[in-house]
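Quick one, tokens below. Sequence please?
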């Protein structure tokens, strides 16, 4: 299934082939896996995007880095690279 966030980023969501309680989310070739069924994720996405729930309320069980991915498309690894501390 395909979903868009409020700024128009496109996310493809598929149930994991190995775990029925996991969903693989892809944006611009980048993937994350969340341990939530596709149906539950879809309902929470609807609550966030259509009903206006704050993302932290709609996706309470997910980490802030996963919620950030939904908002910006930036993976946790990319955040680490962007904000890595300079050893100098």
């Amino acid at each position: 299934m395909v979903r868009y966030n409020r700024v128009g980023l496109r996310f493809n969501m598929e149930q994991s082939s190995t775990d029925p309680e996991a969903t693989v989310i892809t944006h611009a070739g980048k993937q994350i896996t969340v341990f939530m069924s596709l149906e539950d994720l879809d309902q929470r996405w609807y609550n966030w995007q259509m009903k206006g729930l704050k993302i932290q309320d709609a996706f309470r069980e997910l980490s802030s880095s996963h919620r950030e991915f939904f908002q910006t498309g930036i993976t946790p690894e990319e955040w680490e690279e962007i904000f890595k501390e300079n050893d100098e």
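The mean pLDDT is 92. The two ends are 46 Å apart (CA to CA).
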